[in-house]
Amino acid sequence: MTQPYVKQTIENGVGYIEFFHPAHNSLPGHILAELAQTITDAGNNDDIKVIVLKSGGDRTFCAGASFKELININDAETGRVFFSGFANVINAMRKCPKFIIGRVQGKTVGGGVGLASATDYCMATKFAAIKLSELNVGIGPFVVGPAVERKLGLSGMSQIAIDANSFYPAEWAKQKGLFTQVFESTEDLDDAVKAFAENLCNYNTEAMKEMKQMFWKGTEDWDNLLAERAQISGRLVLSDFTKETLKRFK
């Protein structure tokens, strides 16, 4: 696998949405836009009762946004659009009328933690350590913050946001409520995700839709909130601190 993609397959009422990028599943803007649209379309597809969000590759679920695009931001509007990528995916997941099951097989960083947090039920392997690394480059997890805080609580989110150099193990994420179960291998994870998702397909779709609305109550302002957060990040990425830091990475 060398070309980035977003693809969807349907099996026994379960819509499997998979994204991939060869750079550790770090996602450029066009892939994020395609992912958001695919989730929206799956939510409107009567053949799909439950959605599974997954990524290609073995040991990295998602390394966040594309670093290549990040270092090329030279104005605030471009920055806003860049940081709106994950905002649009999170909002698509929030608004989707169907349960989204997260399948996290490996490490996840930055925006990837936001994606995992925006699922309705998330399962992982023991390799699925998480990190919010944004502070390292002079910005912060502003866009993904609401989703992460909703799952980890303010204490857990602030801990990993401030300790931006550290990966926190999957068991820690489970204890904080992000992961529901942690498995020894990807094979065990896939078996469990398949069984769980297919079992959900036996339930009343209207009941699940109403439950999802109940779970996400209080987030109705996220379209505006995440757009405001994207503007903050788009401004901060132009700072001298961030520009100098990115030069070193480059």
Explain the overall architecture:
With 250 residues, the chain is α/β, with parallel strands linked by helices. The protein has one domain (5-185): 2-enoyl-CoA Hydratase, Chain A, domain 1 (Alpha-Beta Complex), CATH 3.90.226.10. 49% of the residues lie in helices and 16% in strands. The chain has helices at residues 29-43, 67-70, 76-95, 111-118, 145-162, 170-176, 186-200, 205-215, 222-236, 240-249, and strands at 5-11, 14-20, 50-55, 60-62, 100-104, 107-109, 121-125, 130-131, 181-183. Strands 1-2-3-5-7-9 form a 6-stranded mixed β-sheet, sandwiched between helices. Strands 4-6-8 form a 3-stranded parallel β-sheet.
How would you summarize this macromolecular structure in one to three sentences?
By secondary structure, the chain is of the alpha/beta class. The chain is built from 10 helices and 9 strands. Strands 1-2-3-5-7-9 form a 6-stranded mixed sheet, sandwiched between helices. Strands 4-6-8 form a 3-stranded parallel sheet.
